[in-house]
Design brief:
about 500 residues, alpha/beta, eight-stranded mixed beta sheet
Length: about 500
């Protein structure tokens, strides 16, 4: 237990420091997108790492704690800042463990760990930008090395690293254009400084930094707030995914994602790879994720994922639906094989997709059951889970939500659309007969989701049937790329 006591204390205090500063970090978030969520993303990333550690026995070794935290933080990393911090901590912790752990490590070892961590952070970013979290990481490492060269002990080395990081944080207000214009420091960099401050208090004592001034994050923190982006996804989409591979995917994923957008980060450890991109082509990013064997993919509009907003969340096994569902305003979680995921990983994925409040619609029974478990254990604002488990119902519900008017209950509108949609699973051979039996003159919308390996052209036969029976109805066809069923059809009829 003593072996990992300091490590556990640091990791927990680091998460708590970000939790306390969460609102302030969100308020000064201007880079790479002014979407007011850096503090939230950092906290949720660190929280998932600590949750994984909390499941260990009290006597778990330093190596076991490192492995649990790294895996939890990678799986739960949120946003660009979360992925970079997970890369930084991953590199630091693995190097520290190789040197006997953070309690046993000496001053030169601390300096090396900080340098390796900075390299890990830089390596995770496709196109590094100075005046950010990366600059602070490099400054902390340089200050630690200078202290060691001057003969400093372990305690003095980590304090010197914090002071170097603080000085670099102050400079981000001048070095980073958006921060300079807003009169703030970089939010991600401020979050990293909090982690280093907690490391100093763990290794050098709670009063180690008491004699030194902290950095002002903005000239007027109480008055300053970054304006939210305008509604309508003008800023594009954020796509994040987790893959499993023993092969280093960094270069492969970075090059492919940079061709689609910016804010690209890729980090891996213990066979897990977390990738992030901002793009106006979410469907292409989803296809990159699938080619890398993604376990889960989250797609959300950049302007829609502030955590203080209610969210429509679509849980689906059909990767091909992600593009259209996100464009309709939903936060989309794609899990191609939810039945193979451990229960805790399912719950984590759903928590990652949901904001403070939301309405959830699932296209699979396993996803539905997991969403209901998350909702039943949730404290705070209500999470509404619609009682349906079919991909066609996901499409119908999200489409209905996108048409909701101010003051209207989004959940009620979604539920009504689901209730008016009759579904069936079929094959190309049975498609004509099955569709004919569902169509009515009152049919308004026919949804066809074509599965993997099926030619989407078969949907033209549905259009012919609809033209005969319900000529005013809309026919919407998706190449869903789901493993099963071969073809899913939904018929939404008018209200009686």
């Amino acid at each position: 237990m003593a072996e990992a006591a300091d490590l556990r204390r640091w990791l927990e205090s680091g998460a708590n420091a970000v939790k306390r500063a969460r609102d302030r970090l969100d308020a000064i978030n201007v880079f790479p997108v002014a979407d007011s969520d850096t503090g939230t993303n950092l906290y949720l990333t660190l929280r998932e790492g600590n949750r994984a550690v909390a499941r260990l026995a009290p006597e778990a070794t330093h190596k076991e704690v490192v492995a649990a935290f790294v895996r939890g933080a990678l799986l739960g990393a949120r946003g660009n800042s979360g992925v970079i911090v997970s890369a930084y901590l991953n590199a630091f912790l693995l190097e520290a463990d190789s040197r006997g752990g953070i309690t046993a490590i000496d001053a030169p070892g601390i300096a090396v760990c900080l340098d390796v961590a900075a390299q890990g952070a830089y390596g995770a970013v496709g196109s590094p930008v100075e005046g950010t979290i990366l600059t602070v990481a490099k400054a902390a490492a340089a200050a630690a090395k200078e202290a060691v060269d001057g003969g400093a002990a372990k305690e003095g080395t980590i304090v010197a690293a914090v002071l170097g990081a603080r000085a670099a944080l102050s400079r981000t207000q001048d070095e980073l254009g958006p921060a300079r214009e807003a009169g703030v420091v970089d939010a991600g960099a401020a979050g990293l400084v909090l982690q280093l401050e907690m490391l100093a208090e763990t290794l050098a004592g709670p009063d180690a930094l008491a004699a030194y001034d902290e950095v002002d994050w903005s000239a007027d923190m109480d008055a300053y707030r970054v304006p939210h982006l305008p509604h309508g996804n003008e800023g594009g989409y954020e796509v994040m995914f987790v893959s499993v591979s023993r092969t280093d995917l960094t270069r492969h994923l970075t090059s492919r994602l940079e061709a689609l957008g910016d804010s690209v980060t890729v980090v891996g450890s213990h066979g897990l790879w977390q990738a992030h991109v901002h793009t106006t082509h979410p469907g292409d990013a989803v296809r990159v994720a699938m080619s890398a064997g993604a376990l889960k993919i989250i797609v959300r509009g950049i302007d829609d994922h502030a955590m203080d907003a209610a969210t429509v969340v679509a849980l689906t096994t059909a990767p091909g639906l992600a593009d259209a569902l996100a464009e309709a305003g939903a936060c989309v979680l794609v899990m191609p094989h939810p039945e193979e995921a451990p229960r805790k990983d399912l719950a984590r994925a759903i928590r990652d997709a949901v904001g403070i409040a939301g309405v959830v619609v699932a296209g699979d029974p396993t996803l539905l059951a997991a969403a209901k478990r998350v909702a039943s254990k949730r404290r705070g604002p209500k999470l509404t889970v619609l009682d349906t488990a079919h991909e066609v119902h996901v499409v119908a519900a999200v489409a209905a939500a996108s048409l909701a008017t101010p003051g209207e209950s989004v959940a009620d509108r979604m539920a009504d659309a689901v209730a008016r949609t009759t579904i069936l699973d079929t094959t190309p051979a049975d498609l004509d007969a099955d569709v004919d039996q569902l169509l009515r003159p009152t049919t308004e919308v026919v949804t066809v989701i074509v599965g993997r390996g099926v030619d989407p052209a078969v949907a033209e036969r549905v259009r012919m049937s609809v033209a005969d029976t319900a000529p005013e109805a809309d026919v919407v066809v998706f190449d869903g790329d789901q493993v099963s069923p071969a073809i899913a059809v939904g018929v939404e009829n008018a209200q009686q």
